[in-house]
Predict the structure.
Amino acid sequence: RKEVEQDPGPFNVPEGATVAFNCTYSNSASQSFFWYRQDCRKEPKLLMSVYSSGNEDGRFTAQLNRASQYISLLIRDSKLSDSATYLCAVIFYSGGYQKVTFGTGTKLQVIP
Amino acid sequence: GAGVSQSPRYKVAKRGQDVALRCDPISGHVSLFWYQQALGQGPEFLTYFQNEAQLDKSGLPSDRFFAERPEGSVSTLKIQRTQQEDSAVYLCASSLVGGKGVPNQPQHFGDGTRLSIL
């Protein structure tokens, strides 16, 4: 089993729809979680951190479920500009420094 | 500069040649990471520096790959005797200190170097 797993998609959704992605992780000692957005042929850009209590940033909501070891990203009122690949990043502390593992990404295509 | 800077943006080399990729992290960022990203995949960890110390090189695929950060700022990833399977995007990321007792900080990525081996 991979340390961090994501459904690669693609998720094809109409404008205005609500869409959600999950990201599962295998290391129960994982401490920090982030969502990144990556456009085609571009570098990953930080979208948002994921806090234990859940957090929201405009149309985006991130949640953490430690018991089931997954994080989620919910996008409301999808825009065409939301089309991208969404990567999750999972961090745990080991040997004095952070170890970071990325998922393979979930591709989202918002269609008119 | 304001962000992580990588050079060159594109590199084409013949199989067997050596290449060197440069990363200039965000000023003040202690941690520096190198990743390899193949098409349709997420970034795969290669190596990690905390200041000038290379604390983890477990992701380097072979002894042809070598990374250094001699003064704790700019880093170079060198690939010797390149092979076609080395073709990928090489991403560099930096972050503030992330260690025990310190809240982990997100990583900020450079534009990457797209390496093509012919």
Notes: Chain B has no helices and eleven strands.
